[in-house]
Amino acid sequence: MSMIEYRNEPFTDFTIETNKQAMEAALQRVGAQLGSTYPLIINGEKISTERAGTSINPGNTDQIIGYVAQADGELALKAIAAADAAFQEWQYVDPAERAGYLFKAAAVMRRRKFDYSAWLVYEVGKNWGEADADVAEAIDFLEFYAREMIRLSGPQPLTKLAGEDNRLSYIALGVGIVIPPWNFPLAIMAGMSVAAIVTGNTVVLKPASTSPVIAAKFVELMEEVGLPAGVLNFIPGSGAEIGDLIVDHPRTRFVSFTGSRDVGLRINERLAKPAEGQIWMKRLIAEMGGKDGIVVDNTANVEEAATAIVASAFGFQGQKCSAGSRAIIHQDVYDEVLELVTAKTKQLQVGSAVANVAIGAVIDENAYRKTLEYIAIGAEEGRVVAGGDVAEGNGYYIQPTVIADVSENARIMQEEIFGPVLAVCKADDYKHAIQIFNNTEYGLTGAVFSGNREHLEYARQRMHCGNLYFNRKCTGALVGVHPFGGFNMSGTDSKAGGRDYLLLFTQAKLVSEKY
C-alpha cells in the first residue's frame, strides 16, 4: 500500500486577518455551546448519572464549560467489560482498516481546527497559539500513528532459514486504561488513546477532571468517523473512587498514564501486584513530568538564550512537563542574561486567553495555591526579580515570576511547580552547569545555548534527559521529528510520536512453518 509521506500539521498564523477572524468566529460558536451536559459512553451507549462534574474556565471562574457525568465503581466495571468484549473482535480487524479511522478523524479535526482550539481556550486557558499547537499535535498523532501501524503490520525482517517460512507480527495486548493529563487535553489524550486503538487494543478513557469536555468532544469525533462501539469507552470520574478499581482489575492489560510523579509511581506499584484471575504481567506506559533546564555558556548568543528561556518557562503559564523552569547560566554572562530575561518577562501581559493575551490563568485553585506557595519559598531561597504576586482578573492569574541567585539544591530548583516560576542559578563554568542540570530526579527536556562545538558535544553525551535541544527552546516537540519522553522520574522513556512508541502497545508473535 503506497502511503503519502507524513508531514507535520502546520501552525496557524494569527497575524493573518482571515485566520484571526476564523478564530474569533469559532470562539463565538463554541461560546454558544458552553454549559452543555456530557454523558458517559460505554459500548456506544450514552449514560447520564445523577452526579456531574463541572468544568470551568480557569480564566473566568464564573463561566461553566460543561457538566460531565461521573462514573461510579459499577459503571467503571461495566466499561471494562465492554472494552473486553469489543477486544475479542477488534484485535482481528485489519490494521489498515484500524488506521483508516485515524486518517478520517484527522481529516475532520483539520476541518474544524479553529473550533477545537476554541474549546481549549475556554476549558484550560490556552492562548490562541498554544491551543492551535495542541490541535495540530493531535492531528499529527492521528496521522503518524496510523502510518506507523501500517508499517508495523508489514513483513518484518528476519534471518532466512531454508525449508521454513517464518513471520513476525505485532499483536494487540488487550484492554488498556488511558489516564491523560489536563495540560495537553486534546493532543496527549488523543495520542494515548489512538496509539492503543490502532494497535488493536480497546480503551477505557478516564479524562482529567479539569479538562473532560475536550475529551468528550474527541470521543464524539471517533464515534462520528464510525469507530465501533466498545473500542473507546469514556468514563470521567473521581480518581479516588474509580482509579484503583480500573488499574487493579484483572482484565486490565496495560495502563497508559501521563501526569504527576506521585500518581505514576502509585500506579506502577499497584500494577506490579497481580489480581486474582489475572494471567499476565500488566504493562505501564508513563510520562511523569520534569524539572527541565536551559544551560547558557559564555559563548552563547545571549539575546537568543534569554528569549528561549522566557518562552520555555512561561509558555502556557509554565504548565508543560517540558517547561524550562530552571536557567543555569555561566558566571561570565550571568548578569547580562538575567537582565534580559527579567526585562522580557516583565513585558509579558497577563489576562484572558479568549482575548489571546500572552499569559493566561493557571488551571485551578490547587495549582494557584501551590504556585503561590512556591513563590513564597523561592523568595526566601533567592531574589525575586520579576513577578512574585497574583495578577488581576476573575481567574487564577499569577504574574510570571523570575527568582534569581538560587542554589542548585534549592527547593525551587528541585521540585516540579507546574506554574509560571523560573529559578535562575549561576554556574562556575560549563561543566559545572551540566552537573547542576543533571542534579535532579527528573530527566525530560533540556537545552544548551553555546557557540562552542566541543561544549555541545560534551552536553550531547553527558546531559541526562530524553529530549535535549541545542540553541533552541526546550518546549515544542513535534510528532515524528522529536520523539518525546524522558528518563528517571520523568517516566518509562516512552517516546510518544516516535517510531518505537506503538511497540509499547503490542506483543511480538513469531509463526514458523516448515515446508
Keywords:
515 residues, alpha/beta, 7-stranded mixed sheet, 21 strands, globular
Descriptive notes:
- The chain is of the alpha/beta class and 515 residues long.
- The strands form six sheets. Strands 14-15-16-13-12-18-19 form a seven-stranded mixed β-sheet, sandwiched between helices. A five-stranded parallel β-sheet has the order 9-8-7-10-11, sandwiched between helices. A three-stranded mixed β-sheet has the order 1-5-4, with helices on one face.
- The chain starts with 16 loop residues before the first helix and ends with a strand.
Number of helical stretches of at least 4 residues: 15
N-to-C terminal Cα separation, in Å?
A: 28 Å
Rg, Å, rounded? 23 Å
Widest beta sheet: strand line-up: 14-15-16-13-12-18-19
Gross morphology? globular
State the major sheet: 7 strands, mixed
Strand tally: 21
Low-confidence stretches: none
Q: Tell me the fraction of residues in β-strands, as a range.
A: 15-25%
Overall mean pLDDT stands at 98
Topology:
Layout: H1 17-31, E1 36-38, E2 40-42, E3 45-47, E4 52-57, E5 60-69, H2 73-90, H3 95-111, H4 113-124, H5 128-152, E6 164-172, E7 175-179, H6 187-198, E8 202-205, H7 212-224, E9 232-234, H8 239-248, E10 252-258, H9 261-271, E11 283-287, E12 292-296, H10 302-314, E13 324-330, H11 334-347, H12 365-381, E14 383-386, E15 401-404, H13 411-414, E16 421-427, H14 430-438, E17 442-443, E18 445-449, H15 453-462, E19 467-470, E20 487-488, E21 506-514
Parallel strand pairs: 1-5, 7-8, 7-10, 8-9, 10-11, 12-13, 12-18, 13-16, 15-16, 18-19
Antiparallel strand pairs: 2-3, 4-5, 6-21, 14-15, 17-20
